[in-house]
């Protein structure tokens, strides 16, 4: 059984994107980008990997599942397979056909994730954004990797959508960076 990890950046007030889905206001300093390239290189889109010095194999994940709204910015600039170095799934109730053979559209992300977690692999599955998707997948999320940015958004997309469902996680590691960003790792409490 392999892990499902929600790897996400949030504001001080708990938002993963602005009201219109914008993430451009997150400060992307060299220290946090270095952390991503070194520890979670597969979270950098394929077309940016060389620019960030990522040339090796995946370290944490071999599969990504993202919500439609997370996938849309890539499509808007003509990138139909943003994570070509991973197996890619897009959870959507509105997309019925994939614009790329390397990207599978799934209508029931919870069922798909349960099947993916049951596979025999040393690498995990990454939930790449989408507060609603994360809320849907919460029963299966084993780990949270949260990049905390020193910015307040005021409103936007919350880290988790859905029903009130307290779920306990334990802090595994926390590290602050000179830019003011911090990264926390949490594991689901058993």
Automatic annotation (TrEMBL):
Domain of life: Bacteria
Transmembrane segments: none
SUPFAM superfamilies, per database record: Dihydrofolate reductase-like
Pfam families in the cross-refs: RibD_C
Record domain Bacterial bifunctional deaminase-reductase C-terminal: where: 4-181
A molecular-function term among this protein's GO annotations: 5-amino-6-(5-phosphoribosylamino)uracil reductase activity
GO biological process: riboflavin biosynthetic process
InterPro entries found in the cross-reference section: DHFR-like_dom_sf, RibDG_C, Riboflavin_Biosynth_HTPR
Protein name (record): Dihydrofolate reductase family protein
Native source organism of the sequence: Rhodococcus opacus (Nocardia opaca)
């Amino acid at each position: 059984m392999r892990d499902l990890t929600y790897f996400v950046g949030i504001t001080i007030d708990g938002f993963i994107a602005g009201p219109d889905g914008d993430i451009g206001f997150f400060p992307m300093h060299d220290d946090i980008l270095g952390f991503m390239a070194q520890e979670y290189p597969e979270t950098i889109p394929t077309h940016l990997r060389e620019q960030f010095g990522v040339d090796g194999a995946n370290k944490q994940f071999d599969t990504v599942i993202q919500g439609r709204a997370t996938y849309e910015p890539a499509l808007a600039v003509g990138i139909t397979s943003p994570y070509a170095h991973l197996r890619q799934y897009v959870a959507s109730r509105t997309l019925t056909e994939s614009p790329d053979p390397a990207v599978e559209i799934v209508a029931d992300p919870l069922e798909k994730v349960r099947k993916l977690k049951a596979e025999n692999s040393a690498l995990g599955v990454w939930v790449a954004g989408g507060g609603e998707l994360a809320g849907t997948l919460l029963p299966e999320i084993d780990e949270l990797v949260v990049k905390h940015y020193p910015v307040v958004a005021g409103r936007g997309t919350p880290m988790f959508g859905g029903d009130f469902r307290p779920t306990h996680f334990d802090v595994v590691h926390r590290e602050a960076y000179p830019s003011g960003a911090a990264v926390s790792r949490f594991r689901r409490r058993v």
